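Lecture 7 notes: from sequence to structure.

We start with a single chain of 256 residues. Read the sequence below before looking at the structure.
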Amino acid sequence: YTNSDSFHNESLPTDLLSEINNSIKIAEKNLLPTTAPIWDTISVGFAHSKGLMISGIYYDFFQHPDGSFSILLIEPVNKGADGIMYCAVARGMVKSLISDKTPPQEVIPRLNYLLAEDTVHEGFYFTHIYFHTESDTLHYISTDASPIWYCPSDKNSPVPLTLGAPLLGTSHSSKFAIQTRPWNQGNRLIICSYTVKSEEPEVDREHIANYLHKTLKEYLEQPPQAQINGVLRRIKTSNDKLLLLNSITLISMQRN
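Now the structure, written as C-alpha coordinates:
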Protein backbone atom coordinates (compact mmCIF):
# COMPACT_ATOMS: atom_id res chain seq x y z
CA TYR A 1 0.00 0.00 0.00
CA THR A 2 2.82 2.43 0.81
CA ASN A 3 4.01 2.13 -2.80
CA SER A 4 0.57 2.61 -4.28
CA ASP A 5 -0.90 5.73 -5.87
CA SER A 6 -3.62 5.75 -3.20
CA PHE A 7 -1.07 6.18 -0.41
CA HIS A 8 0.70 9.05 -2.14
CA ASN A 9 -2.58 10.83 -2.98
CA GLU A 10 -3.83 10.52 0.58
CA SER A 11 -0.57 11.69 2.19
CA LEU A 12 0.07 14.59 -0.18
CA PRO A 13 -2.00 17.25 1.63
CA THR A 14 -0.29 16.60 4.98
CA ASP A 15 3.15 16.43 3.40
CA LEU A 16 2.52 19.59 1.43
CA LEU A 17 1.33 21.50 4.51
CA SER A 18 4.38 20.33 6.43
CA GLU A 19 6.67 21.45 3.61
CA ILE A 20 4.96 24.85 3.42
CA ASN A 21 5.20 25.27 7.19
CA ASN A 22 8.92 24.45 7.17
CA SER A 23 9.52 26.85 4.28
CA ILE A 24 7.76 29.64 6.18
CA LYS A 25 9.89 29.00 9.28
CA ILE A 26 13.10 29.08 7.21
CA ALA A 27 12.04 32.27 5.40
CA GLU A 28 11.11 33.94 8.70
CA LYS A 29 14.45 32.98 10.25
CA ASN A 30 16.42 34.30 7.27
CA LEU A 31 14.95 37.77 7.79
CA LEU A 32 16.72 38.14 11.14
CA PRO A 33 20.44 38.57 11.88
CA THR A 34 22.13 35.75 13.78
CA THR A 35 24.85 37.78 15.51
CA ALA A 36 25.21 41.35 16.73
CA PRO A 37 27.52 43.64 14.75
CA ILE A 38 30.96 44.35 16.15
CA TRP A 39 31.33 48.12 16.13
CA ASP A 40 34.21 49.86 17.95
CA THR A 41 32.12 52.75 19.22
CA ILE A 42 28.70 51.13 19.79
CA SER A 43 27.72 48.02 21.76
CA VAL A 44 24.65 46.22 20.43
CA GLY A 45 22.36 43.62 21.97
CA PHE A 46 19.23 42.14 20.44
CA ALA A 47 16.77 39.28 20.79
CA HIS A 48 13.51 38.15 19.26
CA SER A 49 10.69 36.38 21.06
CA LYS A 50 8.64 34.68 18.36
CA GLY A 51 5.51 34.08 20.38
CA LEU A 52 2.82 31.85 18.90
CA MET A 53 2.00 33.75 15.73
CA ILE A 54 3.65 34.41 12.39
CA SER A 55 4.38 38.10 12.11
CA GLY A 56 7.02 38.86 9.51
CA ILE A 57 9.74 41.31 10.50
CA TYR A 58 13.11 42.19 8.99
CA TYR A 59 15.96 44.06 10.58
CA ASP A 60 19.67 44.36 9.97
CA PHE A 61 22.76 46.38 10.87
CA PHE A 62 25.01 48.23 8.42
CA GLN A 63 28.30 50.11 8.33
CA HIS A 64 28.55 52.79 5.64
CA PRO A 65 31.50 54.14 3.63
CA ASP A 66 31.25 57.51 5.40
CA GLY A 67 31.99 55.79 8.73
CA SER A 68 28.44 55.90 10.05
CA PHE A 69 26.51 52.91 11.40
CA SER A 70 22.83 52.18 10.92
CA ILE A 71 20.00 49.85 11.80
CA LEU A 72 16.86 49.36 9.74
CA LEU A 73 13.76 47.56 10.98
CA ILE A 74 10.81 46.88 8.67
CA GLU A 75 7.46 45.27 9.47
CA PRO A 76 4.53 44.90 7.04
CA VAL A 77 1.09 46.17 8.00
CA ASN A 78 -0.38 42.79 7.05
CA LYS A 79 0.90 39.92 9.18
CA GLY A 80 1.11 36.16 8.70
CA ALA A 81 2.77 34.22 5.91
CA ASP A 82 2.10 37.04 3.43
CA GLY A 83 3.98 39.40 5.70
CA ILE A 84 7.09 37.24 5.46
CA MET A 85 6.92 37.41 1.67
CA TYR A 86 6.52 41.20 1.78
CA CYS A 87 9.52 41.47 4.11
CA ALA A 88 11.62 39.31 1.80
CA VAL A 89 10.84 41.69 -1.07
CA ALA A 90 11.80 44.71 1.04
CA ARG A 91 14.96 42.97 2.26
CA GLY A 92 16.15 42.46 -1.32
CA MET A 93 15.63 46.15 -2.04
CA VAL A 94 17.52 47.18 1.10
CA LYS A 95 20.45 44.91 0.26
CA SER A 96 20.59 46.44 -3.21
CA LEU A 97 20.62 49.99 -1.83
CA ILE A 98 23.37 49.17 0.66
CA SER A 99 25.38 47.39 -2.03
CA ASP A 100 25.11 50.53 -4.18
CA LYS A 101 26.61 52.53 -1.25
CA THR A 102 23.49 54.65 -0.83
CA PRO A 103 24.16 57.36 1.81
CA PRO A 104 22.23 56.54 5.01
CA GLN A 105 20.13 59.71 4.82
CA GLU A 106 18.88 58.65 1.38
CA VAL A 107 18.04 55.01 2.18
CA ILE A 108 14.44 55.61 3.31
CA PRO A 109 13.36 57.94 0.45
CA ARG A 110 14.82 55.57 -2.13
CA LEU A 111 13.37 52.48 -0.46
CA ASN A 112 9.96 54.16 -0.29
CA TYR A 113 10.10 54.87 -4.03
CA LEU A 114 11.03 51.26 -4.85
CA LEU A 115 8.25 49.85 -2.65
CA ALA A 116 5.67 52.27 -4.04
CA GLU A 117 6.66 51.19 -7.56
CA ASP A 118 6.45 47.49 -6.72
CA THR A 119 3.36 45.42 -7.52
CA VAL A 120 3.18 44.15 -3.93
CA HIS A 121 1.24 47.28 -2.87
CA GLU A 122 1.97 46.79 0.80
CA GLY A 123 2.58 49.38 3.51
CA PHE A 124 5.40 48.95 6.02
CA TYR A 125 6.06 50.20 9.52
CA PHE A 126 9.74 50.97 9.92
CA THR A 127 12.49 52.36 12.11
CA HIS A 128 15.71 53.69 10.59
CA ILE A 129 18.52 55.01 12.78
CA TYR A 130 22.05 55.98 11.79
CA PHE A 131 24.87 57.05 14.05
CA HIS A 132 27.66 59.53 13.30
CA THR A 133 30.04 58.91 16.16
CA GLU A 134 32.55 61.51 14.95
CA SER A 135 29.95 64.26 15.43
CA ASP A 136 28.34 62.54 18.46
CA THR A 137 24.90 62.49 16.84
CA LEU A 138 22.21 59.96 15.99
CA HIS A 139 19.56 60.50 13.33
CA TYR A 140 16.26 58.68 13.15
CA ILE A 141 13.01 58.28 11.23
CA SER A 142 10.28 55.97 12.47
CA THR A 143 6.58 55.24 12.33
CA ASP A 144 4.62 55.10 15.58
CA ALA A 145 4.37 51.30 15.58
CA SER A 146 7.84 50.67 17.01
CA PRO A 147 8.66 52.61 20.19
CA ILE A 148 12.15 54.06 20.53
CA TRP A 149 13.46 54.90 24.00
CA TYR A 150 16.43 57.20 24.46
CA CYS A 151 18.45 57.37 27.63
CA PRO A 152 21.33 59.86 28.07
CA SER A 153 24.11 58.72 30.37
CA ASP A 154 23.04 61.12 33.13
CA LYS A 155 19.45 59.81 33.28
CA ASN A 156 18.10 56.68 34.97
CA SER A 157 14.98 56.18 32.87
CA PRO A 158 14.51 55.84 29.08
CA VAL A 159 12.28 58.50 27.50
CA PRO A 160 10.23 57.94 24.32
CA LEU A 161 11.31 59.75 21.18
CA THR A 162 8.85 61.63 18.99
CA LEU A 163 8.04 59.52 15.95
CA GLY A 164 5.16 59.83 13.44
CA ALA A 165 6.71 59.10 10.03
CA PRO A 166 4.35 57.87 7.27
CA LEU A 167 4.26 54.23 6.21
CA LEU A 168 6.81 53.05 3.68
CA GLY A 169 5.61 52.12 0.22
CA THR A 170 2.15 53.71 0.23
CA SER A 171 2.89 56.89 -1.69
CA HIS A 172 5.64 58.25 -3.93
CA SER A 173 5.13 61.71 -2.41
CA SER A 174 5.63 60.73 1.25
CA LYS A 175 8.01 63.00 3.16
CA PHE A 176 10.36 61.60 5.79
CA ALA A 177 11.70 64.15 8.27
CA ILE A 178 14.99 63.17 9.91
CA GLN A 179 15.29 63.95 13.61
CA THR A 180 18.56 64.26 15.53
CA ARG A 181 19.69 63.63 19.09
CA PRO A 182 23.09 63.75 20.86
CA TRP A 183 24.96 60.44 20.88
CA ASN A 184 27.55 60.81 23.60
CA GLN A 185 29.50 58.24 25.57
CA GLY A 186 27.18 56.18 27.77
CA ASN A 187 24.00 57.15 25.91
CA ARG A 188 21.64 54.29 25.15
CA LEU A 189 18.92 53.71 22.55
CA ILE A 190 16.33 50.92 22.71
CA ILE A 191 14.06 49.85 19.85
CA CYS A 192 11.03 47.66 20.45
CA SER A 193 8.71 46.06 17.93
CA TYR A 194 5.75 43.86 18.72
CA THR A 195 2.84 42.35 16.86
CA VAL A 196 -0.62 42.68 18.37
CA LYS A 197 -3.68 40.86 17.08
CA SER A 198 -6.65 41.38 19.35
CA GLU A 199 -10.03 43.06 19.68
CA GLU A 200 -8.44 46.06 21.41
CA PRO A 201 -5.03 46.47 19.72
CA GLU A 202 -4.33 49.99 21.01
CA VAL A 203 -5.04 49.00 24.61
CA ASP A 204 -2.89 45.89 24.25
CA ARG A 205 -0.05 47.77 22.56
CA GLU A 206 0.00 50.22 25.45
CA HIS A 207 0.05 47.33 27.93
CA ILE A 208 3.08 45.76 26.21
CA ALA A 209 4.86 49.11 25.90
CA ASN A 210 4.39 49.87 29.60
CA TYR A 211 5.64 46.42 30.60
CA LEU A 212 8.72 46.67 28.37
CA HIS A 213 9.57 50.18 29.53
CA LYS A 214 9.35 49.18 33.19
CA THR A 215 11.41 46.02 32.71
CA LEU A 216 14.03 47.63 30.47
CA LYS A 217 14.53 50.31 33.12
CA GLU A 218 15.23 47.62 35.73
CA TYR A 219 18.07 46.25 33.57
CA LEU A 220 19.39 49.64 32.45
CA GLU A 221 22.69 49.23 34.31
CA GLN A 222 23.45 46.03 32.38
CA PRO A 223 25.34 45.95 29.05
CA PRO A 224 22.98 45.97 26.04
CA GLN A 225 22.91 42.20 25.41
CA ALA A 226 22.54 41.39 29.12
CA GLN A 227 19.73 43.94 29.35
CA ILE A 228 17.83 42.39 26.45
CA ASN A 229 18.40 38.83 27.71
CA GLY A 230 17.08 39.81 31.14
CA VAL A 231 13.92 41.31 29.68
CA LEU A 232 13.30 38.27 27.46
CA ARG A 233 13.70 35.93 30.43
CA ARG A 234 11.10 37.92 32.32
CA ILE A 235 8.71 37.71 29.38
CA LYS A 236 9.10 33.96 28.95
CA THR A 237 8.59 33.26 32.67
CA SER A 238 5.63 35.61 33.04
CA ASN A 239 1.99 34.57 33.13
CA ASP A 240 1.03 37.39 30.80
CA LYS A 241 -0.66 35.71 27.82
CA LEU A 242 -0.42 38.87 25.73
CA LEU A 243 3.37 38.91 26.06
CA LEU A 244 3.69 35.19 25.40
CA LEU A 245 1.42 35.14 22.35
CA ASN A 246 2.87 38.07 20.47
CA SER A 247 6.12 38.43 18.55
CA ILE A 248 8.46 40.87 20.33
CA THR A 249 11.78 42.25 19.08
CA LEU A 250 14.15 44.19 21.33
CA ILE A 251 17.36 45.98 20.27
CA SER A 252 19.58 47.91 22.68
CA MET A 253 22.55 50.07 21.65
CA GLN A 254 25.01 51.97 23.82
CA ARG A 255 27.72 54.45 22.88
CA ASN A 256 31.09 53.20 24.13
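The longest helix spans residues 5-30. Keep this in mind for problem set 3.
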